Amino acid sequence: MKIRYIPLFVLSVLLLSFSCENKEDISLSESERHIIGEWNWIESVYYYTISGIPYIMNPDTLGFAITCRFEADGTYKVYRDAFLDNMGIYWFETIKYENGTVSPLRLFTQEDEYTKSVNFSFSGDTLILDETEVDGAKRVFVRNH
Questions:
Q1: pTM of the prediction?
Q2: Parallel, antiparallel, or unpaired: how do β-strands 137-143 and 37-46 relate?
Q3: Class of the 22-143 domain?
Q4: Dist CA 113 CA 37 (whole Å)
Q5: Where are the domains of the chain?
Q6: H or E element at residue 138
Q7: φ, ψ dihedrals at 37, nearest 5°
Q8: In whole angstroms, what is the distance from residue 26 CA to residue 33 CA?
Q9: What is the pLDDT along the chain (145 residues), one digit of tens a residue?
Q10: Closest CA to 40 of 63, 59, 64, 66
């Protein structure tokens, strides 16, 4: 009688394995789809300053605009005003630390041989790139429609 249940058990395991998705995979594909397009820089806030007062930069204070364009093929281009400033590749990945913990999904960019990663988040049509964990800025972009 127990042998009769083996095919049913195998079928159940197969169905469960194909119906369950890893939450990280869902976040990855959503992030990959959401970042594609053109983003206009609104401001950068540096929190770690000598005076202790955050320093805010924006297109008005610097006198130029920055636009980032993320393509579906994994490439990006950054424009200063209307001129190409730099370009490279991007991808999303987690970092596994020596103590066994894993970072949240991060955005990696590589220009030539220089690779960096940042925390990122989306809020509607706003993209936030956060490098404050390494004394960097929190950069805010809005989607260009």
A1: 0.76
A2: antiparallel
A3: mainly beta
A4: 24
A5: 22-143
A6: strand 137-143
A7: 130, -165
A8: 11
A9: 444 544 444 334 333 333 333 444 445 678 889 999 999 999 999 998 899 899 999 999 999 999 999 999 999 999 999 999 999 999 999 999 999 999 889 999 999 999 999 999 999 999 999 998 877 899 999 999 8
A10: 66
